[in-house]
Amino acid sequence: MSSMCHVTQVTRDGAAWLASAGTYPRSTLALWEEQPNAPLVLPCGSVFDVVGVPALFGRRMLDRLWNEGPGSGPVAVLRGRVLLFAAPGTAQRLPSLLDWEEWGGRDRAAAVPPLLCHGTGDAVTVPALAGEAAAGSASRWLVAPDTRRPWLPGPEVLLWAAVRAARAAVRISISRPTGQDAKVYDVSRRR
């Protein structure tokens, strides 16, 4: 993710955007002003959806989004998962797109790990606003919200990133059994 330019600490506008997801945005902002090191639980579905993926696969998706695609919206790490903030409706649509593209079926199940899609009726824990506190913690912002209207990828963009990350992760090699002179081929770049 070397070419990624991102903010790792939530700005005042970013905090206002996050708080707007809750029922009482002013109370949420007041709590964050008093306790900037506190993570909070926010509802999904109206302001954003969240797609949670295993950490390594999530990093691969971010590499694709930033190096080959349009970039990402806010991204956090929490309990060994990467949380990709997405456009509302993504949580409902992404699983069906994966199935339609046959990346959710038995043949490709190992390539695209289970994606936890949080939408309407769900809530997620978001990391603390303060970057310093988050750095030593298991939850932190990789790409923090910094505007009141951040760009959020939709289901098609996340499908594209997941499929690209899965293709890059597929490693097929022929290993030499002990004691035989077999040739070893690396076909990891094969599509």
Question: Can you walk me through this structure?
Answer:
The chain has 191 residues and is α+β, with helices and mostly antiparallel strands. The protein has one domain (12-169). The chain has helices at residues 12-19, 25-34, 55-67, 90-100, 131-135, 155-169; strands spanning 40-43, 49-54, 75-78, 81-86, 116-118, 123-126, 140-143. Strands 5-2-4-3-7 form a five-stranded antiparallel beta sheet. Strand 3 (75-78) and strand 4 form a beta hairpin. The longest helix has 15 residues, at 155-169.
- Principal-axis shape equals globular
Major β-sheet annotation: 5 strands, antiparallel
Order of helices and strands: HHEEHEEHEEHEH
Mean pLDDT: 83
Count of distinct structural domains:
1
β-strand number: 7
Helix content: 25-40%
Number of helices: 6
Gyration radius, rounded: 19 Å
Low-confidence stretches: 172-177, 182-191
First and last CA, distance: 22 Å
Strand order of the largest sheet: 5-2-4-3-7
- The proportion of strand residues reads 15-25%
Structural class: alpha+beta
